Amino acid sequence: MIGMLLLVSVIACGIGMIAVIFSSQTLPQQIPAVNLRFSSAENYLTIYHMGGDTIPEGKYLVRINNKDISSGQLIKSPTSSGNWAPGETVTIAQPGLSPSSYIQVIYLNGDTQQVLATNSTA
């Protein structure tokens, strides 16, 4: 009788551990912490990376008034390619910028997108 009770207990614990393993969620990936500053003049938007984490190349996009800006329209300086590091800028020629333009910098994390910074051109 005691043997059967121990066997049932061990099986129940084993099933419980397997259930926990399969139902557990993976750890979320780290989102870069950045300090970005937005500036506009005429039809140009410049985003300054003032500090924080480096953003890997191809892992971010800029959205203006809910419209994604293609990477071909982004001019990064002082280097034109590679990661976006503190001290560097991204400039976009965008006709129709106004003080009410809604700007977002989005981090691309696999199938998900996270807003890193948002601002208006005011």
Features:
18% helix, 4-stranded antiparallel β-sheet, 1 helix, alpha+beta, 122 residues, 42% strand, Immunoglobulin-like, single chain
Describe this structure in words.
With 122 residues, the chain is of the alpha+beta class. The chain has a single domain, classed as Immunoglobulin-like (Sandwich). It is 18% helix and 42% strand. The protein has one helix and eight strands. The strands form two sheets. It has a four-stranded antiparallel β-sheet with strand order 1-2-6-5, with no helix packed on it. The protein has a four-stranded antiparallel β-sheet with strand order 4-3-7-8, with no helix packed on it. A hairpin with a 2-residue loop joins strand 3 and strand 4. The longest helix has 22 residues, at 2-23. The mean pLDDT is 86.
Strands, helices and their partners?
Elements: H1 2-23, E1 34-41, E2 44-52, E3 60-64, E4 67-69, E5 74-77, E6 89-93, E7 102-109, E8 112-120
Antiparallel strand pairs: 1-2, 2-6, 3-4, 3-7, 5-6, 7-8
Short summary:
This protein has 122 residues and is α+β, with helices and mostly antiparallel strands. It has one helix and eight strands; from the N terminus they run H-E-E-E-E-E-E-E-E. Helices cover 18% and strands 42% of the residues.
Percent helix, as a range, is 10-25%
Question: What's the CATH architecture name?
Answer: Sandwich
Sequence of strands across the biggest β-sheet: 1-2-6-5
In DSSP terms (H or I, runs of 4 or more residues), the helix count works out at 1
**Count of all domains:** 1
Uncertain regions spanning at least 5 consecutive residues: none
Q: Give the overall pLDDT as a whole number.
A: 86
* Shape type: elongated
Tell me the number of strands: 8
CATH class: Mainly Beta
